[in-house]
Amino acid sequence: MLVMVGGIPVLAQTPATTAGFQPDRAMKYLTTVCAFGPRPSGSVGMRQQRDWLVSHFEKLGATVRRQEFRIRHPYSGEPVSLANLIITWHPDRSERVLFAAHYDTRPFPDEELSLRLRRGLFIGANDGASGVAFLCEFGNMMRNYRGKYGVDFILFDGEEFVFGTPRDQYFLGSTHFARAYSSEARSILYRAGILVDMIGDADLQIYKEKASVRYAPDLVRDIWQIAEELKVTAFRSRVRHQVRDDHLPLNQIARIPTIDIIDFDYPKPGSRRSYWHTQADTPDKCSGESLAQVGQVLWTWLTRIR
Questions:
Q1: Does this model's pTM top 0.85?
Q2: First vs last C-alpha separation in the chain
Q3: Coil, helix or strand for 257?
């Protein structure tokens, strides 16, 4: 029997499988990324991470393209080179789905209570590295994908190249990608998109995000139905938070129905202190099991598309 998932026909009775998503390996990817240190756009850490990612995905058999562009640094006015990474599986297929994450980090931990600490080191284990690590491990699973759609992983640069000046802009990479997709003559069509962000929290609780519900309600509904079917309890049925994230340009500019899978309560709802954008966002706060829960749900969704 076929049902509709986010506007895509899906075979309802396909058995669920994680196809070998390995939590320990995913966690190793997260710690490897964090070992590059802070990774704001244009930094040495970002360039090192980018080279490592290109090598990783090419070894897995993907085609990797750098979508390069330049911006002006909001402080100095100097040019800064950025690059989205577009990682392509089955490039011959015109109908495609995308999975995305940002791979830059905030320049500084600007949510620290102390003004002195706000210019310290920000590693971004959950806010940055968790989405990257997820896609690195998801890439290992792609050899088992037998569906008809092409699949792209997109790592966005410049999601938050923000220093607190009036000229700062968010979502630089996703906006560049969305504008290129919407304006260029193209031979591909994205049917759906899934953005992952802050999914490594060891106390993972993923609520439905408000803008996702507005722009892609069918996709939200059916991803959460799959989670319920698989008894993946990290996915909570309530709507909570409206998050400004890379899914907004994909919906508003590119017109790709895209949802944001994010645990914005870090570490948990009601906590008096958040790790978000602080020096406490380190690998010890994250869990490979959390990444695997998301992997189980998204892999099941992907393999059911017909």
A1: yes
A2: 11
A3: coil
